[in-house]
């Protein structure tokens, strides 16, 4: 069975770099119309749309933490293609620090973008997807949301929150033919993890497969969940982490 997304429309939040970019590329290669949001990389977004073609791609500047931006992004997708078959909630940030030094602003910024941002965009897409009686929502959590991590209490809380959120959507929407699943990546080589420094060596010892993940490793699992090959999969957390969280 091939993972064919021809005729489907997918919206990916945070699609200009890293994991989101790999998901955009994979979905487009599988034949989907792909819309993606970003926060500030408008040059990258323009180049990506030019590469994929104006008729197949749409870049939308939208801050994940803004309900208005989320609603406008979903509306832009509906205006262009009339449907949303796949929603990938990927945009995320870190503001790391041990609890003793973490201030309320660092806590709130991460919760606002990673968790409340998921609420905003899923809420905007909820009704259209429900009415279509078909679709797939994929949220990008983290192995840290499953296991916890010293120095990332805010991030871990946001990513663990996404798991409960997504499972709840899966239960609410199953009767309408809309599936919702979570991908929990391990450590993936992107800008977010660029300055792991000496921690990278220590980390390697915790990864049974012995390497950091690549954005394409995550995109492959997302593509599966977006596709009809996953028609009987909902409410699941799939760790794509080299075996870290087993
Ligand atoms: P990057 O930092 O490499 O890329 C982040 C992307 O999200 C960019 O496209 C960025 O847009 C966009 N973005 C960031 N903040 C916002 C915002 N407020 N509104 C809209 N878009 C935003 O991140 P990764 O690719 O590493 O991570 C992607 C997701 O995967 C995140 O949710 C992250 O938590 C999760 N994850 C990552 C892991 C890793 O090891 N890298 C491991 C586990 C989970 P712009 O270019 O405009 O800044």
Automatic annotation (TrEMBL):
Active-site residues, Swiss-Prot/TrEMBL: 155 (proton acceptor)
Pathway annotation: Lipid metabolism; fatty acid biosynthesis
Sorted UniProt keywords: Fatty acid biosynthesis, Fatty acid metabolism, Lipid biosynthesis, Lipid metabolism, NADP, Oxidoreductase
Residue stretches making up the Ketoreductase domain: 8-218
A GO BP entry: fatty acid biosynthetic process
Binding locations of NADP(+): 14-17, 90, 155-159
One function term, GO molecular function aspect: NAD binding
Enzyme class: oxidoreductase
InterPro entries given in the database record: 3oxo_ACP_reduc, KR_dom, NAD(P)-bd_dom_sf, Sc_DH/Rdtase_CS, SDR, SDR_fam
Catalytic activity: a (3R)-hydroxyacyl-[ACP] + NADP(+) = a 3-oxoacyl-[ACP] + NADPH + H(+)
Domain of life from the UniProt record: Bacteria
Protein EC: 1.1.1.100
Function comment: Catalyzes the NADPH-dependent reduction of beta-ketoacyl-ACP substrates to beta-hydroxyacyl-ACP products, the first reductive step in the elongation cycle of fatty acid biosynthesis.
Subunit structure: Homotetramer.
Family membership noted in the UniProt record: Belongs to the short-chain dehydrogenases/reductases (SDR) family.
Protein known as: 3-oxoacyl-[acyl-carrier-protein] reductase
